[in-house]
Amino acid sequence: MFKYFFLITFAIRKSLGACGSIYVQVEPHIRVGRDKQIMKIESIRCQTVLTKCLGPLSSWESKLKVAKESGYNLIHFTPIQELAGSRSSYSLKDQLRIDPGYGTVKYEDVGRVVSKLRDEWGIASICDIVLNHTGNESPWLQDHPEATYSCFTCPHLRPAFLFDFLLTKIGEDVERGMLEMLGCPSTIEHENHLQALRHQIMTQYLPKIKIHEFYQVDVEKYFTLFVDNVSAFYIFDSLNSPKK
């Protein structure tokens, strides 16, 4: 899929940003079999495989044969790259290295397996990665912290970060028994314990972090910005309108 957009620029302002866009989707030609027959899009029967569950590469063929015998003609592999400590299927530690759980193998070895699927079994394959699912311990993020989500790169996350920090603090206070005299023991077992905790959160904890202040607007600043933009459009229109 491709996305095109256009800009409007003029002397008064450098750019108005993207003023319009269009998506163009180009259907792929998927070829399978030794004779490279084209697989019709409407005939695809796809099965997603959690690659991390396949184990050593040497065992993939016997496990994937189940998909073949079940009538699937396309297998979607989750990333084969080295996973981070969470072992989530898309959380990558190293985008360039194959996960050691598949054995001491190279990309060429994986290529031979998928080539057999395509040429002998008539099964196509796809594999995708999601770069913003990169693991925290990835060397890439250590070298380029600006590439990750953080309160610095994504200021809109600050309220959520602050709220998460507050919840952690509440949990610690409960565990230490600091709310026991207020009806919330360190081990919460009954409805009245939850209600006592809820009362403390709403009346004592939440007011302290003042989350509402994140959503207050500088009226004068944005009113002035609005007026400037409207004026720029009118000036642009007057300069480019045909003269009578």
Question: Would you write up a description of this structure?
Answer:
With 244 residues, the protein is an alpha/beta fold. It has 2 domains: 30-139, Transcription Regulator spoIIAA, CATH 3.30.750; 155-239, no CATH class. It has 6 helices and 9 strands. The chain has helices spanning 60-69, 107-119, 139-143, 158-175, 191-209, 219-240, and strands at residues 2-7, 18-24, 30-32, 37-39, 46-49, 74-77, 81-83, 92-98, 124-127. A 3-stranded parallel beta sheet has the order 5-6-9, with helices on one face. Strands 1-2 form a two-stranded antiparallel ribbon. It has a two-stranded antiparallel sheet with strand order 3-4. Helix 1 (60-69) links the parallel strand 5 (46-49) and strand 6. The chain is flat and about 70 Å long.
Query: How many DSSP E strands?
Result: 9
Number of discrete helical segments: 6
| SSE sequence, one letter per element | EEEEEHEEEHEHHHH
> Low-confidence parts lasting 5 or more residues at pLDDT below 50?
none
Q: What's the CATH architecture of the largest domain?
A: 2-Layer Sandwich
Q: Categorize the overall geometry.
A: flat
DSSP strand content: 15-25%
Strand line-up of the largest beta sheet: 5-6-9
